[in-house]
Design a protein that fits this description.
- This protein is of the alpha+beta class.
- The protein has one domain: 2-Layer Sandwich (HIT family, subunit A), CATH 3.30.428.10.
- It is built from one helix and five strands, in the order βββαββ.
- It has a five-stranded antiparallel β-sheet with strand order 1-2-3-5-4, with helices on one face.
- A hairpin with a 3-residue loop joins strand 1 and strand 2.
- The protein is globular.
- It starts with 12 loop residues before the first strand and ends in a 28-residue tail after the last strand.
- The structure holds zinc ion.
- Zinc ion binds next to loops.
Amino acid sequence: MFCKLDDSSLNEILIESVNFVVRRDNYPSSRGHVEVVPRRHVESLFDLTATEMAEAFELMQEARKKIDDQFSPEGYTIGVNDGAAAGRTVDHLHIHLIPRYEGDVEDPRGGIRQILPGPHPDEWAHKS
Ligand SMILES: [Zn+2]
């Protein structure tokens, strides 16, 4: 599906640049959830060149502006499931931009840290 970004039956494209597109996630985790996807087939974020990374970041900025205008989220979770062990199910890089809303989960503290078992934020040692 990400190898066929030109197929509009598979992809709802919001923004395009030379080497990337921003598409809506097919199974959005929240209102406004999008992905930044390179046109070139790469599996890992680490396969991008520094120039491509800069272009991807520009698109993330543009996407964020659109999402802010349309949905007014209170925050964002930004991430890549890099590798099958990390939960990647489509082997073509996609950078998730997931708008976050107050109360969308009961206790959001720690954010993406909560994908793995670990101490509750109340138990984190205070080192300062
Ligand atoms: Zn691909």
